[in-house]
Write a structure and sequence with these properties.
heterodimer; A: about 375 residues; alpha/beta; abc type-2 transporter like fold; 14 helices; B: about 325 residues; Alpha-Beta Plaits; elongated; binds adenosine-5'-diphosphate; binds magnesium ion
């Protein structure tokens, strides 16, 4: 056991020295994530706050007031007017005093009480299409967030609120169709950064030994395949975590996005995803003979993860067949977990199912990869 | 391993790549404590054999023991008992001399005072004292090979496999390397070394010749020469060379002709007779012979004779 640990430590030590000698690579590995965050961040940095809102509350109940408070607390809306009648509110909208008119019907609290779907209508000023889209997207998001919160407490199951924002504007922006704000991007980039450093860099590091022939010298030593792979992977796990930290800091100080949930939960659930990534990196390394092949193949494996995880395109807007296929995309579960922790302070109770799926992925992929790797080494 | 008679004892060792038989049912017995030379031209199957013996490559067929460990079942246990230097330089070029030594000591489970002692010894032996902090890629070929040997024996293995350790190295470094091999052998290490240099083969206690995947002869250098070159050998320096080579093949009393640089080695039944006849024979064909000597057969002559006698086809 101690002998095994010592051998692993030697590989880790060697790997860090080699990494530090390769200045270009080292710089790239550490700077890429933050650069990525800033690029992606600016692409989606369409955050607009303080959108003027007119509320027309026909229900005047605790529930409806609670709901409006919630919107205001999100920081995106401010109440410019409380109207008693819809015509009054519409006049404000026409004059451009408010951007959104929210109408809460008289049966709002009654429906909630009976466990039915309460409908709210939102009329959005379409003259500035950008603001219109953002406002409606926020309404949607905040409502969903709230639905999660109100589902569990004292009023029992069944509470759901759905907003039908009647948006008259159509243009959708290609790079950010769901209008996810930078708040949604920071946690997702965190995931992608971790995946990149683990899959591609680990694969390259292992293939480099094949390409240069140094693996021959390793095979004849008493070190076991698993020890060697672990020793090669640990530096990249560390780098992955450092990069996560960098993205978090950049997210915090550059974009003002702060994590709501628990750091220790984030780090420990990340380990599940790390297993999957290592398995993928190992598989890539067994089928590649050159570092270039490994790099290309690794990037290639990342693509479906980027496309079908909800990182770039929202899953809900995909064709149904593809939506069903996304169940085999590991990054999807990890992004859900990280967004949950990051944005909603989600805990084990909300995340256990995704975590179990990730664990299963990790075990299967890592086992398969170790099997193939061990076979290939001889 | 101390009570072992054969450090390597394998039968029927075979490796097939796709449909190409790289190593074809070879039997090898290496007596413990010897310097055993594995001799053969490029592509003969030397590296493939050595890689199977070290447990890097799985044999297609064969059985036996290496270092007393079963070839199939105990290759893991063997690893701490053998040293291996591959044909291609395989230390980390972006680590320094010292870092390579430290790393390999670590993965070979050499720790503490033993590690300090062994690293100091390796640096001394390889003549690398004072160069501990030089990056390995900046070392000349000769130094690298010595460092590679040093790394391969940090854990004091009783059995050492060296695959063409001196290819691409200058003659002085080659000699120095063979001195290191001799020193290790004096300490009781069994050395299995492949080479295609005939002069190096002369340093070995025993040899096996491999040709086109088959072992065609075994024995000490002296045995191989006396057994396979029973006839006398003449060395001629004719001009022009190739017509002389063609003509001599047809000459009376000539058993074989081989080209050695700008000279010909001619196997004859009667040396004294041929020494007189052959220059005349060639003279009649307009070929000038500047020098004729009777020589002792070299290993290369033996090798040429052995391959002709074996009937194994070149591939
Ligand atoms: N991995 C491999 N795949 C296919 N053919 C190989 C492989 N390794 C070696 N060979 C072939 O086997 C033959 C013997 O190679 P090798 O053992 O390296 O010869 P040597 O070391 O004597 O020069 C060569 O013809 C070589 O092309
Ligand atoms: Mg070879």
């Amino acid at each position: 056991m101690t002998a095994s640990l010592s051998r692993i430590t030697h590989v880790v030590w060697k790997e860090f020295i080699q990494l530090s000698r390769d200045r270009r690579m080292f710089g790239l590995v550490l700077l890429m994530p933050v650069i990525e965050l800033i690029i992606f961040g600016y692409v989606v940095a369409t955050d607009i706050t303080n959108i003027a809102l007119a509320v027309c509350d026909y229900d005047r109940s605790a529930s409806s007031r609670n709901y409006v408070d919630h919107l205001v607390h999100s920081g995106y809306f401010r109440i410019a007017a409380q109207c008693h009648h819809i015509t009054e509110a519409n006049r404000l909208l026409d004059r451009g005093v408010v951007k959104v008119v929210l109408t809460i019907p008289p049966d709002f609290s009654e429906k909630l009480r009976r466990g039915k779907t309460a409908e709210i209508s939102a009329l959005v000023d379409g003259s500035n299409s950008n603001i219109a889209m953002i406002a409606s997207a926020y309404l949607e998001q905040i409502t969903l967030t709230r639905a999660v919160q109100v589902r569990f407490p004292d009023r029992g199951a069944g509470d759901r609120i759905v907003v039908h924002p009647r948006v008259e504007v159509e243009p959708r922006v290609w790079f950010n169709p769901e209008l996810r704000s930078v708040r949604y991007m920071v946690p997702a980039i965190l995931c992608v950064v971790l995946m990149e450093s683990l899959v591609v860099l680990t694969a390259i590091a292992i293939v480099r030994e094949k390409e240069r022939g140094t693996i021959e010298q390793i095979i004849v030593t008493p070190i076991r395949a698993g020890e060697f792979v672990l020793g090669k992977a640990i530096p990249f796990i560390v780098i992955g975590y450092i990069n996560m930290g960098a993205v978090m800091l950049a997210g915090r100080y550059w974009f003002g996005v702060e994590m709501a949930g628990s750091m220790s939960l984030l780090l420990s659930l990340s380990l599940l995803f790390i297993m999957t990534c290592l398995g993928m990196g190992l598989l890539v390394s067994t089928v590649s003979n050159t570092q270039q092949q490994a790099s290309m193949l690794g990037q290639f494996l990342l693509l479906p993860n980027l496309f079908f995880s909800g990182f770039i395109f929202p899953i809900s807007s995909m064709p149904e067949v593809i939506q069903r296929l996304t169940v085999i995309v590991p990054l999807k579960y990890y992004i859900t977990i990280v967004r949950g922790i990051f944005l909603k302070n989600a805990g084990w109770a909300e995340l256990w199912d995704e975590s179990l799926v990730l664990l299963a992925f990790g075990v299967v992929i890592l086992t398969a990869a170790s099997f193939v790797f061990r076979k290939e080494v001889r | 391993m101390t009570d072992l008679e054969f450090a390597v004892d394998v039968r029927g060792l075979t490796r097939v790549f796709d449909h190409f038989v790289a190593v074809d049912h070879i039997d090898l017995r290496v007596r413990r404590g010897l310097v055993f030379g594995f001799l053969g031209p490029n592509g003969a199957g030397k590296s493939t054999t050595i890689r199977m013996l070290c447990g890097i490559l799985r044999p297609t067929a064969g059985s036996g023991t290496v270092g007393g460990f079963d070839l199939w079942r105990e290759s893991e246990a063997l690893k701490s008992r053998l040293g291996y230097m591959s044909q291609k330089f395989s230390l980390y070029e972006d680590l320094t001399v010292e870092e390579n030594l430290q790393f390999f000591a670590g993965v070979y489970n050499v720790h503490g005072s033993q590690r300090r002692r062994r690293i100091a010894w390796a640096l001394e032996m390889a003549g690398l004292v004072g160069r501990e902090h030089v990056l390995t890629r900046d070392l000349a070929a000769g130094w690298r090979q010595r460092l590679a040997l040093g790394c391969a024996v940090l854990h004091e293995p009783p059995l050492l496999f060296l695959d063409e350790p001196t290819s691409g190295v200058d003659p002085l470094s080659r000699r120095r390397f063979w001195e290191m091999i001799a020193e290790l052998s004096d300490r009781g290490v069994t050395v299995f070394v492949t080479t295609h240099y005939m002069d190096e083969a002369e340093h070995c206690d025993e040899l096996a010749l491999i040709y086109a995947g088959k072992v065609v002869a075994c024995g000490s250098p002296a045995q191989l020469k006396s057994e396979h070159v029973p006839h006398a050998l003449l060395e001629l320096t004719p001009s022009p060379l190739m017509p002389a080579y063609a003509a001599l093949k047809e000459a009376p009393g000539v058993l074989g002709v081989a080209i050695f640089g700008d000279r010909l080695h001619v196997t004859v039944a009667d040396a004294d007779q041929a020494k007189q006849d052959l220059p005349l024979f060639l003279g009649q064909r307009g070929i000038v012979v500047s020098k004729v000597d009777r020589i002792e057969p070299s290993l290369e002559d033996a090798f040429v004779a052995i391959i002709e006698q074996s009937g194994v086809q070149e591939r």
